[in-house]
Specification:
This protein has about 130 residues and is mainly β. The protein is built from 1 helix and 11 strands, in the order E-E-E-E-E-E-E-E-E-H-E-E.
Length: about 130
């Protein structure tokens, strides 16, 4: 059974850092493009960052560019999202997602929700003073 589990969320003051992890079980992550999305209260889920199977292609939303870093360790079957310089507007539930269909064709990771087949349950990130 394919399962994604996020961890590393929590409460932090503005300017602080958190590192989110997305661990996979039941399958090997190295065949999947991985995306991080977030959803704030009352807002639609939005793309934050994504990374291709080999890690050589990444994408960042403008709102997080220069502050967040996505990486993957296929040996550990885990993808990370290092979040620095956190702002109150980063407060949201963060979800990781996995895409196999497009990855199989060699496509780069997508920033669109509909391109991902598997989703984790999410981890809460709260940035507040």
């Amino acid at each position: 059974q394919v399962q994604l589990v996020e961890s590393g969320g929590g409460s932090v003051q503005p300017g602080g850092s958190l590192r989110l992890s997305c661990a996979a079980s039941g399958f090997s992550l190295d065949a999947f493009n991985i995306g991080w999305f977030r959803q704030a209260p009352g807002k639609e889920r939005e793309g934050v960052s994504c990374i291709s199977t080999s890690g050589d292609s990444t994408y960042y939303a403008e709102s997080v560019k220069g502050r967040f870093i996505i990486s993957r360790d296929n040996a550990k079957n885990t993808v990370y999202l290092q979040m620095n310089g956190l702002k109150p507007e980063d407060t949201a539930i963060y979800y990781c997602s996995a895409d196999y269909r497009f990855a199989l064709s060699g496509a780069r990771a997508s920033r669109f929700l509909s391109d991902y087949e598997y989703w984790g349950q999410g981890t809460q990130v709260t940035v507040s003073s």
